[in-house]
TrEMBL record:
Highest taxon, organism lineage: Eukaryota
Species of the source: Arabidopsis arenosa (Sand rock-cress)
Name of the protein in question: Glutaredoxin domain-containing protein
Family: Belongs to the glutaredoxin family. CC-type subfamily.
Glutaredoxin domain segment(s): 13-75
Keyword Cytoplasm recorded: yes
Major subcellular site: cytoplasm
Any one GO cellular component localisation term in the record: cytoplasm
Keywords, alphabetical: Cytoplasm, Redox-active center
KW Cytoplasm (keyword) present: yes
């Protein structure tokens, strides 16, 4: 869990993903299209990916990918991110975290 906390605080936007997950691809594409440069951890490619996935589940993340943290705070998965984007709350949140300068 301590390793997970360090990863979450590493950058203003952190995405936990899997290459095999289509929703992970959608979320990564959204952030990149917005001009955000997130740290992306592909849990199916990194060492201890299963351990990190288990720690995300302990935080209440279900499903465990994609999971997005902005400014060190859990935003949630694809549904939560897309809801924020559609109600125009995502960009202000990214600006407050210093991840976007529009």
């Amino acid at each position: 869990m301590e390793k997970l906390q360090k990863m979450i605080l590493e950058k203003s936007v952190v995405i936990f993903s899997k290459n095999s997950c289509c929703m992970s691809h959608t979320i990564k594409t959204l952030f990149l299209d917005l001009g955000v440069n997130p740290t992306i951890y592909e849990l199916d490619e990194i060492n201890r990916g299963k351990e990190i996935e288990h720690a995300l589940a302990q935080l209440g993340c279900s499903p465990t990918v994609p999971v997005v943290f902005i400014g060190g705070q859990l935003v949630g998965g694809a549904n939560q991110v897309m809801s924020l984007h559609l109600n125009r709350s995502l960009i202000p949140m990214l600006k407050r975290a210093g991840a976007l300068w529009l």
